[in-house]
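Q: Here's a chain of 359 amino acids. Please give me its 3D structure as C-alpha cells.
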Amino acid sequence: MLLCYTACSRPRGSLSEVPRLLARGQLAAACQMARQLVDETRGDDQVKALRHWIACEDRRGGTSQPARWVEQRRAPADLIAYARGLLALTAGPEQTDRALAFLTRAQALNPRQAEYPFRAALILLADEQPERAKQLLLKACPLMRQSAACPVALAEAQYTLGDEHAARETLAIAATRKQLSTATLRRARALINEMQRHRRALPPQSAERYQQALTALKSGGPSVIALRLAQNLIADHPDRAALHTLAGLAHFQLANVAEAIAALKQALKLDPDDDLAQLTLAVLYRQRKLSDRALHHAQLALRGNPFSRAALSRVIELLRQRKPPTDQRRLSALVARLTRLKLADPAGHRSQAGGHPAP
C-alpha cells in the first residue's frame, strides 16, 4: 500500500500507462514497461518508474529482478539507496527500520528529491509516528507543489497529533493541487470522514437510533419517522450538530422549509464545519431564489469538505448564474478542480458526510 500510495499521481509520458495496465489486469505488461522506463528516464521520472517497477514485481510475487538491478549499481547512489529502501519494505514490517535507514541515506545524498522524505514519512505514519512523519512532510511538500498526496499525508499527521484546524487548512490546499490520484482522493476522504465520525460520536444506543433515522431518509421511507427519531435524539443530546442536521434533512424532505432552515442553522451554531448542513442550506436558499446566500453556504460546504463533488458542483453552478459574471479565471480553476475529482473518482461517487443522504 505504501509503495502504491501515489502510483497513479499522473506521471508524465509513458509512465501514465503503467497504472492503466495494472487497472486492466495486465500485470506482466505493466512490469515490463516500468522496467524499461527505469533505464530510459532520468530524474523524477526515473524515481517514479523505479517505484512502479518494484511495486509491480512485488505484486507478481517476487522482487528478484529489481534486486539484481540494484546489485549492478548502474544508477546514482541516491537512487540505489531508495531502491534498497523500497525492497526492504516489500520484505515485511519487521524491515521498517532498515527501509527508513536507506531512505534517510537517499535523502542525504539528494536533498532536492522530495520522494525520499515523502516515502519515509508514509512509513512513519503507518508505524504510528506522526511527529516524525510531520517533520519529513514539511520538508517534502514544498518540493511537491503540484501533488495532492503530500499535503493529504501532512493533514493526516496533523490530525493524529490533535490539530484538526491545521489538518483542515492543509486539506484545503491539497484539494487545489493539479495531481490527484484515486488513492490520494480515497485517503483524503477517509480522513474527512474520520473527523466527522469523531464529531458525531454518540453512545451506542443513540448511535443505533441515529442510523435508523439515516436509513429511513436514504431509503426514501417516511421522513416523518426520521424526523421523530431525530427529535427524540436531540432531546437526549441537544449539543450534537449532526442530530440537528438530521432533523433539517427530514424537514427538507417533508417540504417544511422554515423548520428545515431553523434546524440547519442550529446545527451550524454547534459545528460550522458541518458541510452537509451548509450544502442543504445552499439548496434551500437556491430554491427561494436567494442566490447570494446560497453561494455563501455552498462555499462554506466546500471549505468543510474540499473534496466534495456535490459542494464543488453547487458552487460552480451558482457562480455561473451570478450577475455581473464571476471572474472567469476563478471559475475555470474550479471547473478544472471538478474535472480532477471526476477523473480520480471514476466510480462517480459523490462525497457525502459520513454516509448522509444527499440534499
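Q: Can you summarize the key feature?
A: Residues 213 and 300 are 25 Å apart (CA to CA).
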